[in-house]
Amino acid sequence: MLKNRTALVTGATQGIGRAIADRLAAAGANIVVHGIEPDAAGAKIAAEIASAHGVRAVYVRADLADEKEAGGLVARAEAALAPLGILVNNAGIQHTCPVETFPVDKWNAILAINLSSAFHTMKAAVPGMRARRYGRIVNIASVHGLVASVNKAAYLAAKHGLVGLSKGVALETAADGITVNCICPGWTDTAIIAPQIEARAAERGGDREAGIRDLLREKQPNLTLLPPARIGDVAVFLCSEAAAGITGASLPVDGGWTAQ
Ligand SMILES: NC(=O)c1ccc[n+]([C@@H]2O[C@H](COP(=O)([O-])OP(=O)(O)OC[C@H]3O[C@@H](n4cnc5c(N)ncnc54)[C@H](O)[C@@H]3O)[C@@H](O)[C@H]2O)c1
Questions:
Q1: Cys-Cys with 107: which of 16, 20, 80, 154 at CB 3.0–4.6 Å?
Q2: pLDDT tens digit sequence for 218-249
Q3: How far apart are CA 204 and CA 210, in angstroms?
Q4: 86-89 and 57-61 as β-strands: parallel, antiparallel, unpaired?
Q5: What's the CA gap between 156 and 173, in Å, rounded?
């Protein structure tokens, strides 16, 4: 379905990004795996994806907290593999803390990695996509791009910002064969939520499973952590011909969280 397309997936060495890279590769796309790991570790992951799915895959390292590295990533990805048809902005971090004690360095890092990096990559990718009259941009926002929870000031600002940014770029590119959409996951089984699970488990005497059940009961009606592959499947759908008419949308994949 995506044969001969080239996709850059940021933060693709683990978690949701890895699942998206795998699902896009399974659909036939060649993959630029982006990460912050050293080149040898990243190249190993790219080789795994290439051999599992019979596609081409390369690794490009860049620290997306750094404006220059974020701005240069698309050009490096295209030089390493091919012009991009698909851009998935997935890299992200979290820090939870009440606003009055929220560390300024964490605020700046979350805004840079979760929001500004997507501005820099889209800015760099759109001209080529427009010239080729094809582009699929998928931004991994969050339920926290749509609704709020306590102690997530920076994450909320970044993810709500990403939803708005995506709508704006969607309008600017709507007549050019480009779609720009967000996926808004709920609790998904990856490393980013481990500190929140541990904190909740500690309140329940160290019982991890009880901590997870507690978090789910509070917010996510399907009472199940989402497997990362479910987000990967939706990313593939948004890149498919079936989704060519969907742009500027923010699709919750959240087990019912935002229906409440
Ligand atoms: N897991 C969830 O419950 C959940 C829910 C909603 C949204 N999300 C979003 O999904 C995305 C992926 O997160 P995940 O759940 O797979 O967690 P994760 O921690 O496994 O993955 C985050 C990725 O971001 C990358 N990254 C972190 N700092 C970076 C930097 N400075 N430069 C470049 N890359 C950097 C990491 O290397 C990693 O690959 C994030 O944007 C996250 O906000 C996750």
A1: 154
A2: 999 999 999 999 999 999 999 999 999 999 99
A3: 7
A4: unpaired
A5: 26
120 & 240 share domain: yes
* Any atom of ligand 1 within 6 Å of the Cβ of 113: yes
What pLDDT sits at residue 136?
98
Catalytic one among 59, 107, 155, 257?
Answer: 155
CA distance 258 to 186: 9
Query: How many domains does the structure of the chain reveal?
Result: 2
Domain assignment present for 258: no
> Would you call 155 a catalytic residue per the annotation?
yes
How many Å lie between the centroid of ligand 1 and the Cα of residue 92?
A: 4
Using a 6 Å cutoff on CB, does residue 14 contact ligand 1? yes
3-state secondary structure of 165: helix
For ligand 1, mutation pick of 113, 190, 250 (most atoms within 8 Å of CB): 190
- Looking at the fold, whether 154 and 221 belong to one and the same domain comes out as no
pLDDT tens per residue across span 195-209:
999 999 999 898 999
Determine what percent of the chain is predicted with pLDDT higher than 90. 99
One domain, residues 163 and 236: yes
Closest CA to 167 of 258, 250, 251, 252: 250
Q: Whose CA is nearest to atom 2 of ligand 1?
A: 188
Indicate whether 177 belongs to any domain.
yes
For 65, the domain range is 6-186+227-250
